[in-house]
Amino acid sequence: MSETSGTSGTGPRLRAVLDGIPTYKPGRPAAAGGPVAYKLSSNENPYPPLPGVMERALAAAAAFNRYPDMGCGELVAELAERFGVPASHVATGTGSVGVAQQLVQATAGPGDEVIYAWRSFEAYPIITQVSGATSVQVPLTEGDVHDLDAMAKAITDRTRLIFVCNPNNPTGTVVRRAELERFLDRVPSDVLVVLDEAYKEFIRDPEVPDGCAIYRDRPNVAVLRTFSKAYGLAGLRVGFAIAHEPVAAALRKTAVPFGVSQVAQDAAVASLRAEDELLGRVGSLVCERTRVHEGLAGQGWTVPESQANFVWLRLGERTADFAAACERAGVVVRPFPGEGVRVTIGETEGNDIFLRTAEAFRKERY
Ligand SMILES: *Cc1c(COP(=O)(O)O)cnc(C)c1O
């Protein structure tokens, strides 16, 4: 099999692994100039930046003729203290997607396998394919939960990395402590398990473990966290991993030099210092999540219990029609054609419009 593709003599030869790569579909923005529209399609935080965070970001912006601190020193120190881990266990990147890509680059290439649940986060197939490795997708259970038993059985000599997205995007479902520990006990120690905890702060189920506790005596576990969701910094691109030294060191090697801007670093530090206020906002979103879930259940929908800032409606063939109905009503949701829609918990008014649309759709189509 050739390493490159493209027709002879026309343009640069590109790696064959790029052929047929799925493109990341960003959540659609709300249409400009249309009726009031709420963007419930990208799991963003609907609250605007906190004044104190904004102030620090703007101050950093005044020096953007300079490169940022390449090692993200202040942020790493702050994170190490916040999580009670050595600074050498913390590695930052351009969003946790950036860090996830570095983890795959550090572990898997052509001939190697990366296991993850499906459906799950749509970045996993992309970053796996870019690295030249092979995706092994393990279907979720009937209840849209990770099938950890099947994932353990999918491990081969070629497996290098396993993603466990907890809570899972787009279903919001979780794996709990006992089943996760049992799974980790079955994974060979030379296979890296990445616990993607992008929505950690939204979890209220006490049985869902904190990856930072799990990783401590497991050198083959890395925890991914982000400032994009609970902390509201999606546009600044900063995330991080907590992992034992060899893995964290590999992340520093695979990082794009100066990838995390000083604006992002300083805003992240300010956000950690404003955590009480930010987590208060998360609490309000969790209340809204409960309200939306109960509203949908009351309308007769079967909705998996979500521990994230979104809900999942399995609509099958009705998915596209439902998304179109939402858009006409003024909310943009994220359809996965033929499967279902993921709807971010946003502003109260946006959530209300979504609930009213879901109710009308249900009466009409079921
Ligand atoms: C949103 C999300 C991320 C975080 O993305 P960033 O690159 O940090 O913005 C990571 N993993 C999952 C599962 C997500 O849904």
UniProtKB/TrEMBL annotation:
GO terms for molecular function: histidinol-phosphate transaminase activity. The modification N6-(pyridoxal phosphate)lysine is found at residue 229. PROSITE patterns: AA_TRANSFER_CLASS_2 (PS00599). Its EC number is 2.6.1.57. Its cofactor is pyridoxal 5'-phosphate. Aminotransferase that catalyzes the conversion of aromatic amino acids and 2-oxoglutarate into corresponding aromatic oxo acids and L-glutamate. HAMAP family: HisC_aminotrans_2, Phe_aminotrans_2. This is Aromatic amino acid aminotransferase.
